Amino acid sequence: MTAKTTYLALLRGINVGGKNKVPMAGLKKLLEEIGLEDVSTYIQSGNAMFRSSLAARTIARMIEEGLTATFKLDDALVKVLVLSRDQLKAVVDKRPKGFGDEPDKFHSDAIFLMEIDGDEALAVFKPRDGVDKVWPGEGVIYSQRLSAERTKSRLGRIVASPLYKSMTIRSWQTTQKLLELLGED
Description:
Alpha-Beta Plaits; alpha+beta; 2 domains; single chain; 27% helix; four-stranded antiparallel β-sheet; 5 helices
């Protein structure tokens, strides 16, 4: 019997601005139909937890194919990143010192990279002094902006980059909650 790994799927390009609607109950059903076990979802932005003996890349491809076959989606926007619990734990554990510790002062996000090199992705960020800070991580870019100045943040400018299609953003609070929901391995 092959050991099962606890995974998190981060779906990019669904349920954003009323487009590419995927109901979480429908997503859960799809994931169960492709053979994933102990499936659960968290909030509407496309987060799913499950167990499987398959490789992460295989699962991501199966989910992407299943999504575009099951739901009416602009498949150019849809991308799936599958991380093991240990990979997500490393993102949380290796955060920059103090990152996410002052949620009343800073908006903090984990920007997960999908089939893109960290240095290449980091090049599209143009942090504004005194407002934005970004740090590279393994498979992630940590982004923080001063809440009182967030309207002056340049984070939104990354949306105009073609590389944005290879990124998916989760708030730091959501990132931590997802790790908690994955439980202990």
